[in-house]
Every structure is written in C-alpha cells, then in structure tokens.
Amino acid sequence: MEPSEHARAAASGGSRDPLVGRLLDSRYRIGPRIARGGMASVYEATDTRLDRTVAVKVMHPGLGDDREFAERFVREARAAARLNHPHVVGVYDQGDDTSDGQDTVFLVMEYVPGHTLRDVIRKEAPMPPARALALLEPVVSALAAAHRAGLIHRDVKPENVLIADEAHGGRVKVADFGLAKAVSADTQHTATGGVLIGTVSYLAPELVVDGRADARADVYAAGVVLYELLTGSKPHEGESPIQVAYRHVHHDVPMPSDGQPGIPDYVDALVARATSRDREHRAADAGVLLHQLHRVEQALREGLAADPELTADLLPRRTPDADDADPVGNDTTPEPFDAGALALLTEVDPRDSGLVDDGSPDRTTALERHLVPTATAPVAAPVTEPMTATAPPGPTQPPAPAPRPAPARAPSRVAPVATTARRRSAKGPVLLLLALLLVAGIGLGAYWFGWARYTTTPAVLNLDRAAATAELEAAGLEVEEGEPAYSENVAPGLVIGTDPGPGDRVLSGGTVALVLSLGPERYDVPVLEGSTEDQAQDALAATNLVFGESRGRWSETVPEGQVIRTSPKAGTTLKPGAVVDLVLSRGRKPIEVRDFTGKSFDDAREALEARRLEVSVAGEEFSDTVPEGFVISQDPTGGTLFRGDTVSFVVSQGPELVEVPRVRAMGVEAATSLLEGLGFDVETDEADGYLGLGFVFSSDPGSGQSVPKGSTITLFLI
C-alpha cells in the first residue's frame, strides 16, 4: 500500500468519493478511503463473498488506460502473491472492473489496522538501539524471504512498513511490492528506461549511477531506515531530490553515534556495513543482514558497551589499494548544484578531478583506529650510499678519478663500470630536484585545495539569529537563513542547527545556513463542521493529524454524511500524529407513527408531542359510534415522520342531541308525527286513569330534555 507517500492535500470542497459504497467485481463493497498516493488510493472494503474486511488499492481514474501503470499493478499482485510470510502484507486478488464504463484497476490486499513505521519514527526517534533493531528485525526477515524467492522490493522505506494496533497483535508487515522485480541477469537495471524509481532518500548509490538493482539495494535501504530509527533524521538531506541522490553517491552515511553519543561501536559498524557505498562490501542479501542483526541484538542483550571483535567483523572490508592510498573522505563539492552535475556521476568521480579533497579519513578508517592496535611498520634498510652520490657536483670540481681496478680483474671490465657510475650521478640530482619540486607543488596545491582555504564552522546553537549572525560574520563567513524546523526543546527563534554543522569545515568566506527553531510542532484541529468525511480526512492529513474513527449521530440540522463535530473539538492544539475522531450526521431521526383511531384524543396528543411531533385538530364531528373526545380519523395513520411534522385528527363530539318538544294534550297522531320528524322513535302506552280519549297526557323523556337523535320517546295517553 502507498499511504504514504502520504500525498494528501487539504480539500476545501468537492463531491463525495464516487467509489465509496460501490461494489467492485460484484464482490468488494468499497468503504472509507484510508490512504492516497500519487498513483492509487487505498480503501477499507468488505469482501461480500467471504465476509471479511480487506484493503482495496484502486488506481486513479485514467491511469488504467496507461499500459505501463496497469502492468505495474499486475506485477505487484503477482510478486507479492508469491510470498507467504507473516511479515509481508498478503495480496488476495487483482481485477479490472468496467461496470461504470471505465477501467477501474484494483488490488485486494490484507487489511492491517494500525499505523506505519513513519508514525513510530515521528513519535519515538531517536530511540535506543534495542528498540530500533526490534522494529527492523521483522522487516529484514520479510526482505530475506523475498530475496530467497528471487524478488527484490526496491522501495523499502518507513511508509511501507505497517504496524498493526495492539488489538490485532501489533505485527509488523512490509507492504507495497509495486516496484518488486524478479532478479535475473537480464533485469539488473531499472525497468523504466533509465528513469529512477523508488524513494530518493533510501536509494542505493548504484541505483543513482547506473540504475542497477539487486538484493543489496534493499540492504542499503534497510540500513538507512536503521539510521533513521537511531537518530530520528535521514542521513542525507538536500534542497532537491538531485542533491539527495548526489550525496548518496559521494557521501558515506554518518555514524549514528556522531549525533547520538552512547550508541555502541558494533551498532555503528552494522549501519556502516549495510550502507557501504561499495555494494561489494554490503551483506549479499537480507538473509545475511538478518544474521548480522541477530549478532548485534545478542551483544545488546549482554549489555556490552563495546565489542571490538564484533565491530571489526562487521566493518566493511577495504581493498588493499584503498588501504595504501591516501585517505579520502566525503566529497565537499559546494552545494547546490544543477541536474547537469548529477548527469556526470557515471563519468567522473569529483575526487578524481583533483578539485575535491577534504583530507579527513573515511568512516571505516576512523572506526578501525579505535579497534585495531597499529602494527609496527617494517624498518627500511639503511641508506649506505654516500651523500655525494645524490648531491650535484660543484661547477669547478673535476670528476672523481675512477678507482683503481684490482689486479685480478681485467681493465676492460672496470672502465665501463666507472663510466656508468659517473653517468647516473649526473642525472640523479636533476631528477631528484624535479621530483621534489613536483611533490612540493602537489603538496602545496593539496594543502590549499584540501585544507588552507577551509575554516571551521563556529558553534552557534541556542543563539538568536542576530547573535549567531554576528559570530559567524566575525569568523569571516556569510550567513543565510535556511528552512526553519520544529523543536521540542529549543525556544522559537533560536538556532537549532547549521549547514555545515558546528565544527565542520567550510570554505573561508563561504556561506552557513542557519536553521531556526519554530518551537514545538503543534497543530490546531481544523473546523470541519459541515464537511464530508472524505474532506475531513484530507484536512486532518494536511495538518499532520491522524483520522481515528467516525461515529454516527442523528441530527435535525446537519445533512446526512456531514461532520457534526470533532473529538477533540475544533481549535484544540495537538502534537503531530494525534488522533482526531469525527461525529458524522446520520440525517434526521425518523419517528414511527401509530394509528390512534378510536383512541382517546388526549392520550394521542400526549404521546405524539413527547416525540416532538405537532398535533392539530382538523375538526369535530357528531358520532353515534365513537364516544365524545375520541378520535374519529387521523392523517397520516402511520409510517415515518420527522421531528416537527404534523399529525391531524378529527375528534368525536359524541351523538347529536335533540330537545324533546312539548306534546301534552296533543292528539296521538300529531305528537307522533312531530317526534318522528325530529328523528325520534315513538312508542305509546296508557297513562294511569286511562279514559280512551286519544290525547297525550305525558312523555318520557319529558319535554325540554335533550336526548340523542334517534332515541325512543314514549307517549302516555289518557
């Protein structure tokens, strides 16, 4: 995976990622994006067929039409699928989905919830050697498995080392075999037509010079990672990738103990061996490096502050020619330089030009002086020739007479010897003088180019800019302000470093760049309310904060899918790498409505208002079947509503009441007709003392009473 390069940019707006929620290849349900690189994005996804969480790496739209990029994707799948190792991220599947009308090339990989080794370096480095080796050991083990399978990774860096969280075992896994390639006699060069591949801070020198890559390039990158774990910084920095690549070719990786005193000499030696610029001096592959690493771990467990034997064994081997030659150190070609300088790397080593010579021993010689006692040099044979044999004769001094030959020798054999001696004595002084002049000239030039024109950079750490500038200018140096950097220990505005560093050599009248402290690195949680989850993740990445998790909440005001708030809240100042959680809106909370028809209206109103719904009475009606105060009808009668929506009711007034008219003394026919006309039913009965007259004596209910329409009225006749 490529979380890394971590090439995220803050998003100020935009639509939701169209891939989220999509089903690739009718199998992989795409979830939230967890990383994005220059070529692809990585999403958390669900394998619907096997019901498991996976990571899906999707090539950016449009790149699927590029055959070279597509082949790289397929190559990554095939390369990583060949490896079955507990410290290698597994690749499960590879495919090309065209359901939306365009090619979506993707890889399906093991999902590793957690963080990267870069996050560990940012939080813990510089770290003790034991901790650094414990983190690097599984990485080297994974590379060793790849090398045994005939594969080289070619992009080993902290961003490609994933560390699962504690809930998932904390296992370390190496990811992104996208640059991996099988090792063969025909594939020892880059497969990109001369284009440099990999990350420049971890490139082996031979990759820069001729693009040649084998297992030892991975060993070099692992050594650089170990240096970074031990010191908290990369060994070579520059204003451009070209400068960094140049330093890899012409500068040794420094000893970690130079910046972090207390690191044992054998740990220095392990770094020196792994990062030797001559790949013939490195471990042959990661398997050999793993063995060396185990030896160093054992020495650390035994608590050894130094181990001369182990150190001497680990140090890069030096050829006899290198031992006999004058010691040379790192190149000191003035920086910056242009791309043309890098193009000459394969043609001329600047040290062979006679213009570069800092006169300092290389790192291997420096270590060896502390480890191996100097052997007694053989004593040269004494010079027995007379001094006059090498001194020019005086201008008026005649030649010395030839010695008289012994009687036993013939004169013919003595004369040539005398003549030859006189001829050599005449040329010798001249040649010697020329040699002395030549040596003196070379020595003077070497002294000038390699020493006399240099001075030492004064130490100005912890001074403010004005004081540091005054001290450097007093030493005859120019001052410029470099890129400021964060510091947990140095107050803002004070010097935390210089380039060249304190005590380093610099050309007289040269320029020293001041690195001023910005103080502790802190970032404010951005205001993310109203942004989408994808936009919020990008904004957090842009401020060096880490997205934690999203939790859904109902909201009546924030649309679904947008951020309601963050935890910690916006404006909180945090360290880089701090985790920020998001609270996302699930939209308005739905409210289920039940049917209250035939139920008490008062009970219905109380229940609905408790759920924040509005209640209205559309009307009241008489009902012979629904009691007064109960619901005759309701709108809506059910379904889902939202807070503030209205439910209307028609409430019963009970049956309609009619006043009984006065019918006393009326004839039975007239009274019956009147009551039936008002909607009553009529019955007749004889009153007490009935005389048979056919007139109404009284009624029940009596006149003036209000009774429901349709009630029965009894007439009592007399």
Automatic annotation (TrEMBL):
Domain Protein kinase as annotated: residue spans: 28-294
Transferase recorded as keyword: yes
Biased composition (Pro residues): 392-408
The protein's Enzyme Commission number: 2.7.11.1
Record keywords, A-Z: ATP-binding, Kinase, Membrane, Nucleotide-binding, Serine/threonine-protein kinase, Transferase, Transmembrane, Transmembrane helix
InterPro entries: Kinase-like_dom_sf (IPR011009), PASTA_dom (IPR005543), Prot_kinase_dom (IPR000719), Ser/Thr_kinase_AS (IPR008271)
Transmembrane segments: 430-451
SUPFAM superfamilies linked: Protein kinase-like (PK-like) (SSF56112)
MF-aspect GO terms: kinase activity
Catalytic activity, reaction form: L-seryl-[protein] + ATP = O-phospho-L-seryl-[protein] + ADP + H(+); L-threonyl-[protein] + ATP = O-phospho-L-threonyl-[protein] + ADP + H(+)
Skewed-composition ranges (Low complexity): 372-391, 409-420
Annotated spans, Disordered: 307-336, 369-421
Keyword DNA damage annotated: no
One of the Pfam families matching this protein, by short name: PASTA
Domain PASTA: 451-518, 519-586, 587-653, 654-718
Protein name in UniProt: non-specific serine/threonine protein kinase
Organism: Nocardioides furvisabuli
Name of encoding gene: pknB_1
